[in-house]
Amino acid sequence: MLQLRNVALRRGTRLLFDAASLQIHPGQKVGVAGANGTGKSSLFALLRGELHADSGDVEVPEDWQIASVAQELASSEQSAVEFVIDGDTELRELQHNLAKIEAEGGDGVAIAHLHGQIESVDGYTARSRASRLLHGLGFRAEELDRPVNTFSGGWRMRLNLAQALMCRSDLLLLDEPTNHLDLDAVIWLENWLRRYEGTLLLISHDRDFLDSVAGQILHIEQQGVKLYTGNYTAFERVRSERLANQQAEYRKQQREVAHIQSYIERFRAKATKAKQAQSRIKALQRMQQIAPAHVDSPFHFSLREPEKLPHELLQLDKVGIGYEATTILSGVRLSLSPGDRIGLLGPNGAGKSTLIKLLAGVLQAADGECRPARDLKIGYFAQHQVEQLHPDHSPLEHLQQLDPGAREQELADYLGGFGFSGERALMPTEPFSGGEKSRLALAMLVYQRPNLLLLDEPTNHLDLEMRQALAQALQDFSGAMVLVSHDRHLLRVSCDQLLLVHDGKVDEFPLSLDEYPQWLADQQRSYDVPVTPNGGQSAAAVRKQQKRNEAEARKRLQPLRQQVSKAETALDKAHAEQAALQERLADNDIYAEHNKEVLKGLLMEKAELDAHCNQLEQEWMEASEALEQMQQQQ
């Protein structure tokens, strides 16, 4: 097993661990949590032998093969698939020895023995295994033989990850593996890690990812480590109970809970027409439950109210988008109004970021019409915003450049909500971590009071506390939002509508976010065939069978879908009646003495209508849950 006994570790003048002890058994999958700077990455360096404890013992079994993701970008003329195969160091050593013996004219017995060893480590399936890893992480078949140094930085990090997964390891150390992945690749990696047979230590700020993969949570706090049984949700529950015992925190917890509950009620009253309503109500209720675990977060901010909110912010009519002669999307129709909250789904490379760039005005429409409102004010977040920060300027100076007339104390108070307090607000940004730079870019975006937020992977490098603060801040935003994210928790609690970018089109996604992984698996089933020349069933035949299976599944689900649709229609009608009745009750004249009987009748009608709405909502929820369960069984 892996053990730490009374370990102390300093980095410079900072004490990271003091008398830290823990035991991790073979095969356990452990999520590593803790605020930035508490020592998560240093723990990994200890286990790899790159750092040595100031006192205490770190014990990793000598025969364990350790794999981790290289942080430096690979630069090589080697093909992508061969680079990934390098991760299997035992195979590469056997291949090297075989080539050496053959070059020296070695005896046949030794050569035969090496061939047998290569077969025993599945060496003859190495290319196929590496190809499947690359495909899962989003690489196309024609890219497997491209030189490594022709890929961008983000894709080279995916190559580093694939190389680590290729290693037949006993201990796998993954530090933020989802940072450079889209949702499709995150879902694939999640499934791969669940099947991994070795011991896994995983640093991640994606709570859904941790919940799905980890069976224990190692929390680093106050120079100590503590191992909790269960996934991240279970850990949050235990931590919230502990914080609730501290009276000073308890009152703050209750305010957070009440705030989210009020939002749930407001959302429930207007969201019945949204296909994602049931999923989002559940997500918001869960968000309410986990809020107490984050009351000691250093991040507390809200999105500033836009100065103007035009009725129609932006309209796309039959828009086509592309690069040079290549069309990415065509016939796109989209209308964005205040209050719209849209999440974009779709396979890797389908055009999600392309659509965001069009909405942001970075790309121009190739055809069709794009009609922005006169008072449209866009807040666009993408990684290039982070890269455009001035390294010599402090967070305070960045804000002063946006608003030269603002008082310095007001700007400092504002930055404090994003974790830039005291001296941190006055430091140059050059040495800041990726998370700190992302926080500053978000702070600058929010400060400008946009009425349309376009967020392309805003959570990259953000820790769990900041993600939670962002999710809460988005609840009260009165403008429109379009979001691309691999963080499913953020998508669930922030988006009313899901759009699918697929096959050059943009359409409403008819299912819930929880059903997206299965939809994705159905779409990609043809790729499950091993990538071998002329081997296996043809992709066309697989797609044909897939369409047949999907048609049969739709037929079985049709009665329940109709039941859900009928319930939604009835609920829409009842809520319209509620709104009309509420309008009458808002009239001051109705409360005059001579209208006493009329008021009494209206109040009785309201009570009956409210009860009817509750009944309809219950029927809708039950039908939706039954549909969801049947879809999961297929």
Which strand order does the major sheet show? Answer: 5-6-7-3-8-9
Radius of gyration: 28 Å
Low-confidence stretches: 526-539
What best-fitting shape do the alpha-carbon axes yield?
Answer: globular
**Main sheet specs:** 6 strands, mixed
- Structural class assignment: alpha/beta
Number of strands: 18
Average pLDDT: 82
Helix content bin: 40-55%
**Count of alpha and pi helical runs:** 21
Question: Beta-strand level of the residues, as a percent range?
Answer: 15-25%
From the N-terminal CA to the C-terminal CA, the straight-line distance is 39 Å
Structure description:
This protein is of the alpha/beta class. It has helices at 40-48, 80-85, 89-103, 108-120, 126-136, 153-166, 183-195, 207-213, 232-244, 247-270, 277-290, 352-360, 383-387, 395-402, 408-416, 434-447, 464-475, 488-494, 516-523, 539-585, 596-633, and strands at 2-11, 14-24, 29-33, 55-59, 66-68, 171-175, 199-203, 216-221, 224-229, 314-323, 326-336, 341-345, 367-372, 378-381, 452-456, 480-484, 497-502, 505-508. Helices cover 47% and strands 18% of the residues. It starts with a strand and ends with a helix.
Please give a handful of descriptors for the protein shown.
globular; 634 residues; 47% helix; alpha/beta; 6-stranded mixed sheet
